[in-house]
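Before relying on records like the one below, remember that each one covers exactly one chain. Contacts with other chains, cofactors or solvent are not represented anywhere in the record.
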Amino acid sequence: MENWTKFGAVSAELDIGGAIWHLKGLPDIFKGIELAANLRDQSMAIASPAGGWRGTYAPDVVRIGSLDGRNVEERHAPRAAYEGQTQESPWDRLHALYFTGYALWTYLTIPFLYTLPGFRTEELPAWKENGEIWRRLKVTFPESITSHAREQISYFGEDGLLRRHDYTVDVMGGARGANYASDYRNVRGIMVPMSRRVYAYDDAQQKIDEPLLVSIDIRSIDFQIE
């Protein structure tokens, strides 16, 4: 924690894929993106050099436009734009940017995020998967943090590193996600999972292998002191 609190920002280059983007009518929208995020509040800039666009995320407003700053579209109170949607509902670019902005910010700050005021945690019975015993932490998010859902579960290996992160997705009609973190790299003393794979899970919380809903592969990442 002492090391983590030194950093105020993070920058990364990454590729995001998976079946969800085809379902939403936006295949490859987040392939080859660059991001710069504030670690102390929920804000992030995302750019796609290949796609020719740049966007910004904050909980109360999202904006997207061309790389030169022209033709900007924006949406205030963006979460309200998902009302009445189901898992199959198509998205526009602002839907996708809001979802990806809050999701990536959450993934980049867990588990340190859980120490902030307003978070409530409860240890659940241990879980066995992949020949390992994982400790499970149920986390209730405060209203001040935008995320998939208020209640989420994180699984940690014997080395203390996050292995899996379960949630339901409010903006996708309660779709289930089991988010597996792997390929850890030490970046300025922070252990970062460079790969994430998201699948659905069944009523017994067992992973459903097909389809792969979301893939996240970080090509480069660095933290900045601010």
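The longest helix spans residues 93-109.
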